[in-house]
Design brief:
Length: about 400
């Protein structure tokens, strides 16, 4: 095939669905420019699943990307590739780090949080019901944000007075319009917050994951966390633990309000809130593109091309989820009745998201309580006029203005 010009990914995420269509038009893998870095965006779901489980693909840029050192010095997304935690680990090192974190998201621990999550949602919905009727309310700000922040803060032991600061810097991590200097300054503020959290939990440890991870540093069998690994593991859990869930709540609410007939069928019991969660994850995954992976060896593609050893690879989950070979000619439609809602929103293989069960629980509980309490809620503006987040990674809206309508009796 002739060499294709790279598609320059829009850092503002302004028209991501048209962009994903253009990526798929280049075949199973597309040449892309990500803020000046060239990579292969994988949009074919079968190929993406294969590469996500292949030892021929690594997430360790230090070991497997020749351009790593020169890139981290100048790239606005340097934090995404330079952290030292299970997100960027490969092979045995990844398995070691994942074992340390996995207990926080065990089925037993998630089940134990169910009542607490329901209570948090009830409180937030009660706050909405107390607002003056008739005014527009930003549901992203007043519901989609505070629940995941509350849940992950409970899990990690983040004190109340540190949560707003974490939110501000985590939002910066996902903002792909920052300059390299702005991104570096944001990363420094984030690490200051992490150091403050570590100091707080060292002084007053508790039954939370931060305290348990700090304790693991004292292990003498080589399985504990080095200091950099500790900070970066906390970074991963705090940031991924809430930003992604915020976006799923956001997108689910928007699509239900834009499709009132489907909402009616859920409220009458034809379909479940879990159906909504899975269709939202398929149609609008919280992370559109996830940087980066690297070819450990030459990788032949189905169309005869080759990803050379050492090249960067971008997992383009949003484009893959809507691939017509997977979900047919209705792949771009929101349909809670879709028989198969398979998706890659939580990744695939060894790096599959540990927090997936917790996120699913949070989103379903929010939707159930929100639409039960406010069955007449409407978007304050047409959904096509909602502004996307300024990110090629994070898939959500800057705000969700709604008119709640009269609340049902609680």
């Amino acid at each position: 095939m002739p060499e294709q010009q790279p598609i320059v990914l829009d850092p503002t995420g302004f028209n991501r669905h048209a962009e994903h269509t253009a990526l798929r038009a280049q075949g199973p893998a597309a040449h892309v420019d990500i803020l000046g870095i060239h990579a292969w965006a994988i949009t074919d779901p079968a190929l993406l699943k294969e590469l996500l489980t292949s030892p021929a693909v690594s997430k360790d840029g230090r070991a497997h990307w020749p351009a790593f050192e020169e890139t981290v010095a100048i790239w606005p997304l340097a934090l995404w590739i330079a952290v030292e935690n299970m997100f960027t680990a490969y092979g045995a090192d990844h398995r070691r780090l994942r074992r340390l974190v996995a207990p926080a998201f065990s089925a037993r621990r998630v089940a134990a949080m169910k009542d607490d999550i329901a209570a948090m949602v009830t409180s937030l919905i009660g706050n909405l019901a107390g607002l003056p009727q008739g005014q527009d309310v930003d549901l992203r700000e007043h519901l989609a944000y505070p629940l995941p922040i509350g849940v992950i803060s409970h899990l990690m032991g983040v004190p109340e007075d540190q949560r707003d600061a974490f939110r501000a810097v985590v939002d910066g991590v996902f903002n792909t319009t920052l300059t390299p200097a702005e991104a570096q300054a944001n990363a420094e503020r984030l690490y200051e917050q992490l150091d403050q959290l570590i100091a707080t939990k060292r002084g007053a440890p508790g039954d939370d994951m931060t305290s348990l991870l700090i304790k693991s540093r004292g292990e003498e069998d080589g399985t504990g966390l080095a200091h950099r690994e500790l900070r970066d593991t906390l970074l991963l859990m705090v940031s991924a633990g809430y930003e992604t869930t915020v976006n799923v709540i956001d997108q689910a609410v928007v699509h239900l309000l834009a499709h009132p007939r489907q909402l009616d069928r859920i409220l009458t019991g034809d379909y479940t809130w879990e159906d909504v969660v899975e269709e939202t994850l398929r149609l609008e995954p919280a992370v559109a593109h996830l940087p980066l992976r690297y070819a450990v060896q030459d990788i032949p593609l189905p169309d005869g091309r080759t990803i050379p050893k050492g090249d960067a690879i971008l997992a383009s989950y949003a484009a893959a989820n809507r691939h017509p070979d997977w979900h047919g000619h209705t792949a771009d439609d929101f349909d809670v009745a879709r028989p198969s809602k398979d998706h890659l929103a939580f990744g695939h293989g060894a790096h599959f998201c540990l927090g997936a069960p917790l996120a699913r629980l949070e989103v379903a509980e929010v939707l159930r309580q929100l639409f039960t309490r406010f069955p007449h809620m409407q978007l304050a503006i047409p959904s096509i006029h909602l502004r996307p987040l300024e990110s090629l990674i994070s898939n959500g809206h800057q705000s969700i203005p709604v008119r709640l309508g009269s609340p049902a009796e609680s």
